[in-house]
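BUG-141 | component: ligand-complex export | severity: low

The export step for protoporphyrin IX containing FE jobs runs without errors, but we want the raw record kept on the ticket for reference. Input record follows.
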Amino acid sequence: MAGGGKVYSFQEVRKHSQRKDCWLIISGKVYDVTPFMEEHPGGDEVLLACTGKDATADFEDIGHSDSAKELMPQYCIGEVDAATVPAKLARAVLPAKGAAAPAPRASTGQGVWLTVLQLALPLLLVAMAFALQNFAKTKTE
Ligand code: HEM
């Protein structure tokens, strides 16, 4: 690691959030990607959008190649002090520009009931049609 294991606070890392001074946090490590901004095949905007937070999920979501991962050590300047990373920011997964937004989760309480209702409603209608048909038959007999 180029940074010799230096530990930075989250507050320190987030100060470097400009095109000419851009640091990222990926898997607990701090990367100074300033010299890489123009070369990054995904563009500099996505890197800028990943400053000031934990960019691990964004980086992983892209499915970077092994050769991309091999480039990383040269930009690594140290580690982030995990205790200083705000929990909600550490878990934040913002969709990267050009990437698909995460699908809404259907397994939440409300979602399950909606699915059950969607399945049950047509069955209920068929059952009612049969009942009506039988009722009409018995009336005419
Ligand atoms: C040190 C950090 C990073 C390095 C060295 C890096 C390197 C690369 C490389 C080499 C590629 C070309 C494709 C590949 O080989 O996988 C790439 C593509 C890309 N990267 Fe990064 N990247 C970094 C961080 C990030 C971050 C934080 C994001 C945020 C979302 C990002 C978003 C993208 C996107 C959107 C592409 C284009 C993918 C495509 O066109 O299919 N990268 N990156």
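Assignee comment: Attached the raw record above. Residues 104-141 form one domain.
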